[in-house]
Automatic annotation (TrEMBL):
Family: Belongs to the short-chain dehydrogenases/reductases (SDR) family.
Cited Pfam families: adh_short (PF00106)
Species, as recorded: Pseudomonas turukhanskensis
GO molecular function: oxidoreductase activity
PROSITE patterns: ADH_SHORT
InterPro entries per UniProt: NAD(P)-bd_dom_sf, Sc_DH/Rdtase_CS, SDR_fam
Protein name per its UniProtKB record: Short-chain dehydrogenase
Keywords: Oxidoreductase
Amino acid sequence: MTQLNEKGTALVTGASSGIGAVYAERLARRGYDLLLVARDQQRLEKLAASLSADYGVKVEVLKADLTQKADIKAVAQRLRGDVHISVLVNNAGVAMDGPLIDADSDAIDSMLELNIAAVTHLAAAAGANFATAGGGAIINLASVVALAPEMFNATYSATKAYVLSLTQSLSSELGKFGVQVQAVLPGVTRTEIWERAGIDANGIPAAMVMDAGEMVDAALAGFDQGELVTIPSLPDAADWAGFVAARQKLGPNLSHSSAAARYKV
């Protein structure tokens, strides 16, 4: 009889390269079995063999294109029904360059399917599984442009703002069941996402670009500290606390029966 891993299995999307591959390696190092999800089966299988040999964990590969509804549904069903899965890393995503008014409509649809629909359906499935189990963790990869949308492409920034908002809401919903939820907001990270979006990353000042390994290590340190939102490059946590406090200060005045006096002119 095969002995079960007490830590369970971590499902990582977009695991064939970049941030996803680093998460897979770091979680294998921590002793998790892995379920690696991406489109490139050959790269997945190569990574799986390496991690299994290096860390002695079970590594399964699941080929899926998360821009396709059928593949999203298949991965969601696995997440909802596999009691051994204890961590979801919602990492798969795509960027886009250029102004929205010039964007290809099919490219927009593909981005929305991957960056929003897939993230949402997988988080919902994992959340249902983990709530029943009374524990588990969901890590959603957002971006700092969720906080500074003027800095980058409108559609990409909006999708990452969605991921941040989704994560904050999920934490409120799932915390009572013992499920940990984290949003990770990287700045510019050295991965293939830029080339795929047609962006020359060499044009970005080197002082702004973080290696994927350092980014993931910082994100996992934030996870270990129980952070809901982790911004790997932010030096002073008090700056984020101040941002949250300013948002909460708006709360009592966001909904009244009368318009504010300043609008009654």
